[in-house]
Write a structure and sequence with these properties.
Number of strands: 12
Number of helices: 14
Bound molecules: pyridoxal-5'-phosphate
Largest sheet: 7 strands, mixed
Strand order of the largest sheet: 1-7-6-5-4-2-3
Structural class: alpha/beta
Oligomer: single chain
Length: 377
């Protein structure tokens, strides 16, 4: 079935007999048993809830996976993932990760005895693998520098060595990129972003490729308890109905805005994976069917960056991304504030860098807004 159709109809299983076209919100923490030792399939909502199950099965269909588990936020999903590992285990991760993921690794997982190495390309990842390596975690494109990692090339390295390949697919979504089909074992999402798509709900997803991983992660999820609520599950299901058309629109508008930015005197560099001069353009064209709505760019000086942040009107100066409203952030002070200064600078995250999540507003209104804000200094 086409991805547009899966987005609209989601999981086809029916949960009630009224003919409701939209899945009901099953606001029940617990479920009565028909008899001793019997179950309707639902017992207690921390383990499973029909609305959440509908969402999970929809994501599974979109990602082409075996099973999905929905969490209360993207970070709750990453935290659950970390419970797969034990003290002494080693993980190789993208060196340009979402700031919160990096903070979890460096302030929580390391304290619990896990070891991390960071790498940029598939060659670098291969070089950092040790006998203790249990997983490779990549984000592609990465946040905020828009580096692209060749998923298939990394899968060749991990599959040979029995190492889990985990891909954060938040930025491109299954509409444009399906990491499991490229050899990944687990796909991670902050559903807060494009999947929900309306800047109104937090959520996180883990989609796995086989029953063994599904069983281990379901056990962790029900035991640690970071499950998504029925109401929030409903909001994400509702968001996904328009995911495919939203992604097309984000993609089209972002490409035009990225090109426009490259022509502005005060803009020094534009990081958008859909620009032909992006160093990984060829890899993007091979492994994804679109480029998404995320653009980072550097301006001539700190004053211009601040002027843009303080003078945009249509675009909101706020963290997060992937929603209907365009958002602009200052990675230096927001998403990546917890990164040590030397590491931040080595990655190009400085006082001139801005990250723009292109929303669904008219392209001209976004451009006029940027132009006015840039010239307000
Ligand atoms: C936002 C984000 C996360 C964390 O998700 P939350 O829903 O905010 O907890 C993880 N990875 C990426 C790429 C993100 O953008």
């Amino acid at each position: 079935m086409d991805i547009n159709t899966i987005c609209v109809h989601g999981c086809v299983k029916k949960y009630d007999t009224t003919g409701a076209v939209s899945v009901p919100i099953f606001a029940s923490s617990t479920f009565a048993h028909p008899g001793v030792g019997q179950s309707t399939g639902f017992d207690y909502s921390r383990s499973q809830n029909p609305t959440k199950e509908h969402l999970e099965q929809t994501i599974t269909a979109l990602e082409g996976g075996f099973e999905t588990i929905a969490f209360s936020s993207g970070m709750a999903a990453v935290s659950a993932l970390m419970e797969l590992f034990s003290p002494g285990d080693h993980i190789v991760a993208s060196d340009d990760l979402y700031g919160g993921t990096f903070r979890l690794f460096s302030h929580v997982s390391e304290k619990n005895g896990m070891k991390f190495s960071y790498a940029a390309s598939s060659d670098e990842i291969a070089a950092k693998i040790t006998p203790a390596t249990k997983a490779i975690i990549i984000e592609t494109p990465s946040n905020p520098m828009m580096n692209v990692v060749d998923i298939e090339a990394v899968a060749k390295i991990s599959n040979n060595k029995n190492i889990l390949l985990i891909v954060d697919n938040t930025f491109l979504t299954p509409v444009f990129q399906r990491p499991l089909s490229l050899g990944a074992d687990i796909v991670l999402h902050s559903g807060t972003k494009y999947l929900g798509g309306h800047n109104d709900t937090l959520s996180g997803m883990l989609t796995v490729k086989n029953s063994e991983l599904a069983e281990r992660l379901r056990f962790i999820a029900k035991t640690t308890g970071g499950c998504l609520s029925p109401f929030d599950s409903f909001l994400i299901i509702r968001g996904i109905k328009t995911l495919a058309i939203r992604m097309e629109c984000h993609n089209k508008t972002a490409l035009h805005i990225a090109k426009w930015l490259t022509e502005q005197k005060k803009v020094k560099k534009v990081y958008y994976i859909g620009l032909k001069d992006h160093p990984d353009y060829a890899i993007s064209c091979r492994q994804a069917s679109g480029f998404g709505g995320m653009i980072s760019f550097t301006v001539d000086c700190e004053e211009t960056a601040k002027s843009i942040l303080e003078n945009v009107k249509v675009i909101k100066y706020a963290e997060s991304l992937g929603g209907t409203e365009s958002l602009i952030t200052y990675p230096l002070l927001q998403t990546h504030a917890d990164l040590p200064k030397h590491e931040r600078e080595a990655r190009g995250i400085n006082e001139c860098l801005l990250r723009l999540s292109v929303g669904l507003e008219a392209e001209n209104d976004i451009i006029e807004d940027l132009k006015h804000a840039m010239d307000s200094r």
